[in-house]
Amino acid sequence: MSFFGNESNGVGWSGDSYFPCFVVDQITDECMALWRDWGDAQAGYNFKFGGLKIGGGLLDWWGYVPVRIINEFIEKVPNSTLDENLKRTRVAEARFLRAFSYFAMVKRYGGIPLILKAQSLTDPEEELFPPRDKEEDVYNFIISELEAIKNDLPEVTASGDLGRATKYAALALKSRAALYAASIAQFGKVQLDGVVGIPADKAKEFYQISYDASKEIMDSGKFQLYNQDADKVTNFKNIFLVENNSETIFAKRHDSSNGLISGGNGWCVDFFQCPRPQGWNRGNFSAPYLELVEEFEYVDGTSGKLDRNKIENGLWTIEELWGKKDPRFFATIYTQETPWQGSFVDYHNGLLLPDGTIETKDSYNGVLCKGDQDMEGTNFGVMKYLKESHDNMAGTESAWATSDQDWLIFRYAETLLNYAEAAFELGKTNEALEAINQIRDRAGIAPLKSIDRDKIRHERKVELAFEGHRYWDVRRWRIATTELSHSFSGLQYILDYESYTKGEMKYKLKILNNIDGSSSVPLFKEENYYLPITLGRTASNPNMVENPGYK
Fold this sequence. Notes:
By secondary structure, this protein is α+β, with helices and mostly antiparallel strands. 37% of the residues lie in helices and 8% in strands. It is globular, with a radius of gyration of 24 Å.
């Protein structure tokens, strides 16, 4: 199930031991890909600029090989000599994985053929070359499967079975899938006689299913928001570093054995995303946009949007800039003066001299004109999932793919966010507000006094940043053509020499517009709400129609 590696398309070089697991974030309004001179690092990111066409190549996952294996398993295990309880549990796990496979495909392509038995070459031609089922029917299959198997899965897993599906993993998938279907019905349009799109009158029904599944998880008492550390920044970081914590519903497990060199199960998040020092003198692979930074409010609940004209005038300390930000900002993003491995991250690029000029080369009176970080990007990096103790200097053989943090596929905060969104769309505004305020209270930020659709979406954007949700969210809300089709920016820090000599670091700030490149404007086209089936697949199956807009 390669998509478990944050939608990457395989294992090893194609999975979360290498660049593909970061693509789903880099094609959104969250961040850019910073390693501009490396083709592999740019491959997925390049689709961001209107490049997704009928040939595909972005986030592709046509999962009928694992589906066939699962179908064979489901058919053969009941006739085995295994213990009856074990057979029931394992078949339920397989059906969960099959439902997840179809969800991974339907959210990419819309309706796809539902193949629920292992095919044989002697099967009728209409079964071997099936047409695409309707998108609504695929979602209904996923939801019905999860409801059918949930009580055959354990409520909790033993320590030796961590990473296997539970009843609540099934409910979490049901909550997410139904929410996607509901918003596609509400905001999308039906095309190809329902092969893509869901009738608008089905939206409330799907919202109710999502609401009920989320509430069943909430009412179980099995999970709660992680809230063990007094310091709110540390607490939010530890959601992603403390394994099997109270918020974890379903995770892809990792260990520290090298995921490339020795065939182990480590992944590359620390080595690729950390600040320098780093073995290749790189790191900071994903560079968050200033626009995302501005999404993080201040702790009193006021907007985090900067007065860009104001900040480009005068001098500013980091405390004045970011000091009162939502603690999730510091746990999600690093920037100038972020503490790191006994020192701090230094992005300053330029030295403001007493005469008002800016020196950019070498040093001035012993003060370096540039810091030690990569300044070709936004001057922000991704802190979420980073383990500060990881050795990022040891090189490929021992450090590259050895991160052991589990990847959280479902966590309780998403359940609350799903619940809030579904509740709001069903007219249950008080329940939506209460769920959102649970998340804000854990974060250490002022509660909301009222709720609306934009506030729910904002909270989701901040809470789930860099967890692989944003791309799918703006697609299902049908706002990607606006949200992902404009230029983004970064921020340059220029150190003030006189302040520095007086023991206080102040900075002149400069907005870095069109940070992806003056000729590279992000563009999400209308047809990109669905990935292309591709010419290869439609050519091999004459009954397979292509998605609208691809020629």
